[in-house]
Design brief:
The structure holds two protein chains of two kinds.
Chain A (H helix, E strand, L loop, with lengths): L28 H16 L6 E5 L15 E4 L5 H11 L4 E7 H7 L1 H10 L3 E7 L34 H8 L3 E6 L3 H13 L3 E7 L3 H5 L7 H11 E3 H6 L2 H4 L3 E5 L2
Parallel strand pairs in A: 1-2, 1-3, 3-4, 4-6, 5-6, 7-8
Antiparallel strand pairs in A: 5-8
Chain B lengths: L2 E4 L9 H5 L5 E3 L11 E3 L10 H5 L5 E4 L26 E6 L5 E6 H12 L3 E4 L6 H13 L5 E4 L3 H13 L4 E5 L1 H16 L4 E9 L5 E5 L4 H6 L8 E3 L4 H18 L2 E7 H4 L2 E6 L2 E6 L28 E3 L14 H16 L2 H4 L2 E4 L8 E5 L1 H16 L4 E6 L1 E3 L3 H8 L5 E5 L4 H7 L6 E4 L8 H12 L1
Parallel strand pairs in B: 7-8, 7-9, 9-10, 10-13, 12-13, 18-19, 18-21, 21-22
Antiparallel strand pairs in B: 1-4, 2-3, 5-15, 6-14, 10-11, 12-20, 17-19
Helix pairs in contact in B: 3-4, 3-8, 5-6, 12-15
Classes of the chains: A alpha/beta, B alpha/beta.
The structure holds thiamine diphosphate, iron/sulfur cluster (3 copies) and magnesium ion (MG).
One iron/sulfur cluster binds next to α2 of chain B.
Chain lengths: 257, 473
């Protein structure tokens, strides 16, 4: 352990304890991501009073609001990146972090995402990707895999999903990475790099939703759902070495830019 | 020996910690039952290596391991240095500011005068998306921001949803923000207009109306957004909308829009139309302008309650403010199942406006000095110019005809209208729509008649005079 490892105790100063326990379901990956963000902030020694967390509508939108003891702007569905643009441009002294779900960031908010990436605005966008509309009851999203059962794809999803990292990289972002919440240490390290990056940093975080995704797809147990990422994800270095067949159906994780 | 603390009130019993611990330190206590599940216990703390895997993967910050390895971890707020002041508009409250444009007479287009009014009022953030007949506002702002001193941000956004969203974000970062558009853009902005209302964000939205619905006639005037700007967002609320009828008022009413937005923490709509937006005429720029800057909180004052218009903190000032579009209490905490909080919030959002009508509502009367009038014309925006022409024609023909012109259209100046309408047996509302303001006038004067036109042309004075003659007959 390095001396600057943030602990559950040390991040207490970054939260509003009176709003805990959170309203998230047991085993929700968004809670793990919440901890990872706070640990990254704490390990960097960032001043929460200079942090602005902007979120949209969805379970992911509740990660910072009201849990974080910082300025928080809990906006409308799909628009957090656009709201954040105004604050980031007007006061560059703010450390602006956007947190939203896959529906929020990639479906209704997809246009704002690519344009913010194109402008290479100085902010971090974290997409908490559970491949489902969690809050509204488990409908298909643009990142849901083919074959997944959702409330609106009872026979299995037929539409191919976005690769968000490729999308955002193509749009011009200067920092692009993906991890799952299971990859907690690389995730915290990557969040720290993203917070320090000048320019548009995009971090896609695969986050399990046991309630809406898991229950429909034989992964109701949060532990099994979390550990699924162990075999599902392939680090970028390894992915470059293995065959296409081996890579089929896997998710590549790492820093892409 | 490492100490493993499990917060029983925060733990939800997902058992992730039990399964990820490489040393099998944690166990599910099958014997007891608490908070609806079997609690987790540290059965073998001696075996713990303080790897923190359990801590890191607990979704509820419910497990805390302390041991030697944690020594040196930061404790307490590491940063106590004073914050650099956030860029908020100063001084607070009313102030007199020198005009950024040198005083004197100018020949300007309405849209350009609007841009100058915004700058004079202290606008330092503009986000927009091109649309006829409002683009000239954006272009003028863009050019002027580039040469003016002081921090100013201009950004052309990807759409109108993003334009108003970024204005709200900038306003909370301390900006005086504005966006301008026309009907199609207003349609896109409505959800975030509601957001600005519930979060009590000062922002100015210019609607240079054109003929609709939909794309309609992009280059032609209309006044069909009269009701849309009032009722377009969902839910119950009040907002302010002002109606300029000249290039001079495109300047002065834009300043007033900013002042009211800052004073009442409310979005203010400048409801212009293509007629005034593209009109060119003289205006006089005074050497000084009266401006109002938002009041900030002194010490610990709630940002969303306590007073009719609560003080507004700015991001980065250390207030750790919670802004949300969900129903919230006075400190910004979501209270989405409290009937009381919802009732109080929606009531205050309305009464902070309706209890201050004297400060907000302005109207003008013309040719109304007689004790009795044969006919009262009611009209707003560009059409009111023609209505005044019609009233003059009527006077020449020997009829006592006057004009009532709301300069604040929302809240509608019902009381002022009631006073002058009492003089007249006939009230005729002229507008470039099919009777939108007429409905509002009829709430005061039930038998008022309307003269509405929706052919994408401005209404000429003689057309109104003809309609008036018909009525007078
Ligand atoms: C304009 C609008 N459309 C729809 C909704 C309903 N809505 C609320 S949350 C949500 C989905 C959230 O999904 P996601 O962004 O993936 O977040 P998650 O809950 O999965 O974390 C939707 C569609 C809304 N609030 N606003
Ligand atoms: S529905 Fe899914 S995403 Fe939402 S809190 Fe529950 S587990 Fe998390
Ligand atoms: S710190 Fe590591 S060893 Fe100790 S209980 Fe947690 S997971 Fe097990
Ligand atoms: S991981 Fe956290 S919430 Fe889950 S059982 Fe362990 S302590 Fe409780
Ligand atoms: Mg989701």
């Amino acid at each position: 352990m390095t001396a600057n490892t943030a602990t559950t105790a040390s991040i207490q100063k970054c939260i509003r304890p009176e709003v805990f326990p959170s309203t998230m379901c047991p085993g929700c990956g968004h809670g793990i991501l919440m901890g990872a963000i706070l640990r990254a902030v704490d390990e960097l020694g960032l001043d929460m009073r200079r942090m602005l967390f902007v979120s949209g509508i969805g379970c992911a939108g509740w990660i910072p609001s009201p849990h974080f003891a910082a300025d928080t702007l809990h906006t409308t569905h799909g628009r957090p990146v656009a709201f954040a643009t105004g604050a980031a441009l007007f006061n560059p002294g703010l450390n602006v972090v956007v947190i939203g779900g896959d529906g929020d960031i990639a479906a209704i908010g997809g246009n704002h995402l690519i344009h913010a990436a194109r402008r290479d605005l100085d902010m971090t966008v974290i997409c908490a990707n559970n491949q489902i509309y969690g809050m509204t009851g488990g409908q298909v999203t643009p990142t849901t895999d083919i074959g997944t059962i959702t409330a609106t794809t009872p026979q299995g999803n037929e539409e191919p999903p976005f690769d968000l990292c490729k999308l955002v990289e193509g749009a011009g972002a200067s920092f692009v990475a993906r991890y799952s919440v299971y990859h907690i240490r690389p995730l915290i390290r990557t969040l720290k790099e993203a917070f320090q990056h000048r320019g548009f940093a995009f971090v896609e975080v695969l986050s399990p939703c046991p309630t809406q995704w898991g229950r429909r797809n034989q992964f109701a147990d949060p532990v099994a759902l979390l550990e699924r990422y162990k075999t599902l994800c392939v680090p970028k270095d390894r992915a470059e070495k293995i065959s296409a067949e081996e890579l089929a159906g896997k998710v590549v994780v790492g820093r892409f830019r | 020996m490492p100490e493993i603390a499990i917060n029983r009130d925060w733990c939800k019993g997902c058992y992730i910690c039990v399964n990820v611990c490489p040393r099998h330190v944690l166990e599910i206590d099958q014997e007891s039952f608490d908070h609806g599940f079997h609690p987790v216990v540290a059965a073998r703390p001696d075996d713990c290596t303080v790897c923190r895997q359990c801590e890191l993967l607990c979704p509820d910050l419910a497990i805390s391991v302390s041991g030697e390895e944690a020594a040196g971890a930061p404790a307490g707020e590491a940063h106590v240095e004073p914050l650099a002041p956030a860029p908020r508009p100063l001084p607070q409250g009313w102030a007199t500011a020198p005009s950024p444009l040198p005083a004197g007479r100018y020949f300007l287009q309405g849209d350009e005068a609007c841009a100058e009014g915004a700058i004079a009022a202290g606008c330092n953030y503009y986000a927009g998306y091109p649309i006829t007949p409002a683009s000239e506002i954006m272009e003028r702002i863009c050019a002027r921001f580039a040469v003016l001193l002081g921090k100013r941000v201009f950004v052309q956004m990807e759409d109108e949803i993003a334009s108003i969203a970024s204005c709200v974000g900038a306003a909370w970062a301390g900006a005086k923000a504005m966006t301008a558009t026309s009907g199609p853009g207003i349609s896109l902005m409505l959800e975030n207009l509601g957001y600005a209302i519930i979060t009590e964000t000062p922002v100015v939205i210019v609607d240079v109306q054109r003929a609709g619905p939909s794309t309609g006639q992009a280059t032609r005037p209309g006044q069909g957004d009269f009701m849309q700007v009032r009722w377009g967002a969902h839910g119950d609320y009040e907002l302010i909308a002002l109606s300029p009828w000249s290039v001079a008022e495109m300047y002065t009413e834009t300043i007033r829009a900013f002042n009211l937005a800052e004073r009442f923490r409310v979005p203010v709509i400048l409801l212009a139309d293509e007629g005034v937006g593209h009109l060119r005429e003289n205006l006089t720029i005074p050497p000084e302008v009266r401006i109002f800057n938002r009041i900030g909180p002194s010490d610990r004052e709630p940002p969303f309650g306590g007073r009719p218009v609560p003080p507004m903190p700015v991001f980065g000032e250390g207030h750790r403010v919670l802004v949300t579009g969900s129903t919230h209490d006075e400190w910004g905490y979501r209270r989405t199942s409290s009937a009381r909080v919802q009732a109080e919030l929606t009531a205050r959002l309305c009464t902070k406006i309706t209890d201050s009508m004297d400060e907000i509502v302005e109207s003008e009367t013309y040719l109304c000095d007689d004790d009795r009038l044969d006919l009262l014309l009611v009209s707003f925006g560009f059409t009111a110019r023609s209505a005044l022409g019609a009233a003059r024609m009527a006077r020449e023909a020997g009829y006592r005809v006057g004009l009532f012109r709301p300069r604040t259209v929302w809240p509608f100046p019902a009381e002022a209208l009631r006073a002058v309408a009492a003089k007249s047996a006939r009230v005729l509302v002229a507008e470039m729509n099919r009777g939108q303001m007429l409905r509002e006038v009829q709430r005061v004067v039930p038998n008022a008649r309307g003269f509405g036109k929706t052919d994408g042309e401005v209404i000429a004075p003689d057309e109104i005079w003809d309609a008036a003659k018909e009525y007078l007959r």
